Structure formats: structure tokens, C-alpha cells
Amino acid sequence: MSFQNPVFIPGPTNIPESLRKACDMPTIDHRSPLFGQILHPAREGVRKVLKSDSAEVFIFPSTGTGGWETALTNTLSPGDKVLAARNGMFSHRWIDMCQRHGLDVQIVEAQWGAGLPADRYEEILTADKGHEIKAVLATHNETATGVKSDIAAVRRALDAAGHPALLFVDGVSSIASMDFRFDAWGVDVAVTGSQKGFMLTAGLAITGFSEKAMAATGSATLPRTFFDIRDMETGYANNAYPYTPAVGLLNGLNEACRMLLDEGLENVFARHHRIAEGVRAAVRAWGLELCAISPEVYSDTVSAIRTPDGFNATDIVTHAANTYGVAFGVGLGEVAGKVFRIGHLGSLTDVMTLSGIATAEMCMADLGLDITLGSGVAAAQEYYRAHSALPQKDAA
Predict the structure, then answer these.
(1) Does residue 391 have a pLDDT over 60?
(2) Which alpha helices (DSSP H) does the chain contain, by range?
């Protein structure tokens, strides 16, 4: 691989130089007021990115998986019933975590390539007259298939059923890249990580808790120590952690939030959509299809691209790495060997994306697929030319 080439995996993402510098800092006393000047602005920045006025933000030295565990263990008890749909590898892994924690998971099987079945959620929640279901799990962006789901529709399903279950949302590959509305969607726990939309290395599990979720911690009895938000809350009140924090990464998170908010969240979302549309134009020009079954579920952070039957899509990823020093994502779970993934989130531009599209074309041509070199690049170029992010000057 080459350190000079951008990566096109759906996380970790490319790191802007300013964020690398923000993380590269001298050691400080993490129990001093100085640390509070890093910690509290970072938490407030995350709250703004979540589009929330009231979410309690807790940041752990971990990854998104640790964020999932934080959501479960702080709000639920052994044997509690949760509702979840399985429509990809990451929703599957969250279900697996629930089962390992002794939770009773009612699983709705969905097509890999489809979004969450909010209508089915509503049926199940309406039928749950005793309100045995304590939480509903929703993966906002299924990274394995390049599918986004309608979280507002899941909230409407809960409301239509008059059900009090908590709403947990995996926003690991969506938050800070695609529109996410913690307050407006009635999210109770949101989970993300530092290595995707926040453009940092892996190392931080970032969570937001609603007032209702905070109240649930009082009765939850699942074991927790490292991920106990009440311990964290006590530490925060004293400008500290209950253990040693990742100070450099937190300083980077503070800077990342500033960058995102300075760009403007709507501009960030528009940039991701524009870049994704260019990739999708390339896929159409290649004569290939996305794993996502319809435009309304197309992800703006990752595209999972199906290859012809009988062709091992993983060969494209391997060839790109070995021959051109470029990283793409492999297919996972049910779509392993059937798709390769182009991540287009975080610190990325139209021009950088064109290099990834060109590399994918070379790999497919090298491996014998019927791909015309330049076809996808040209299609993406046409889209980017017509949807430039920069103000156009008069040609005269």
C-alpha cells in the first residue's frame, strides 16, 4: 500500500493534516482544569453535530462497537426484550452482542440491500400490548451493503404504536457525514466513532443519551464497568475521566467538530451526496449495479457494487492493493465475494474520488471484466462539472 494515496474504505477515513496536528500534542495532566478545556468543547461540538440541544454526550476510549455496548449495558437488564432487523453485517453484529448479553432479541429478517422495515416494526410494536419490548435497534447506515434507513420512519412507527421502547441508533458510518437529527427523530441513544465522519483514527466511541435513556440507567442491571456512563458523568463534573482518557484524540475531536461546523453541516451533507452521486454515475456507466435495491436507500458514505455472477469481487480489492497501492472495501457476510465497496466519506473531494474511480476501472479491466477504461471517470466528471461545490465564474 502507499501512504500517498487516499483510502476508499468506509472507515477509517482519510485524516486531514490539521487533525493529525491536533492529535499530536504534549502530555498534559488529564485531571487538571486544562483537560476540561479540551473535553467539554469536544462534547458540545458532538452535541451540535447530532443536532441536539439536550443530548448527554459520553466519549469512551474505544470504537463504535464499544458504543453499542455502552447503549445496551447502561439501559437494559438481563432478559429484556429488544427488537431489531437484520439487513447487513453490522446490524447482525449488534444483534449478536445483544444475545451475548443475555437479551431476548426479536429479529426481523430483511433483504441485504433493503432498508429497515419500519412498517413491520410498527406491526410488532402495536401487537406488544404489555410493552415487553424495551428497546428498538436501528442501523442508520448499513456499511456492508451501502444502505441507509429512514430513522424518522422508525420513530413514527414507535409513536403510531404508542410504544415507550427506547430507540437506539447505530450512526457509526452516518453521523458527521449524512443528516442525523437526534432531537427531531426522538433518538434515545446514538452511537458513532471517531474514525469515519469525524476523520480521525479509530479510538473513540462517541455516544449521545436522551433524558429518557439517562433515566433508564437507574434500573438497568446489565454488568458494566468500563462503559458506565454514571462513572463517566461523575468524572466529567471534575474535568476528568474515571480512568485515563485519550487526550490527543479528544483534542482532535474538538478540532474535527470545529471543522465540520465551520463548513456547515448542510454543506457537509451536500458534499457527501455530491461525491456519492459521482460514484453512482460511474457504476451505471460500467453497466454494474449497487447492492442497495433502490435510490431511496442509497448511502452517501459507501457504495457496495455488485460484480457479475461467477466473478470474485474480492479480487478487485486485492488487485488494487497489490498493484496500485489503493484500498477499497471487501464484501462482508452474505455479500462476501459478490460486491466490492467504495467508501466516500470523511475527508474526501471530487478530485480525490475520481482517482478512486479510475483505479477501480483499471482493476476491473486488468481482471477481465468488460469495462471500458474512462467510462466511469467520464460519467463522474460530467456529474461533478454540473454540480461543482465552488461558485462558478463567468467564462468571459
Answers:
(1) no
(2) 17-23, 33-49, 64-75, 89-100, 118-127, 151-161, 211-216, 229-237, 247-263, 265-286, 314-319, 350-366, 375-386
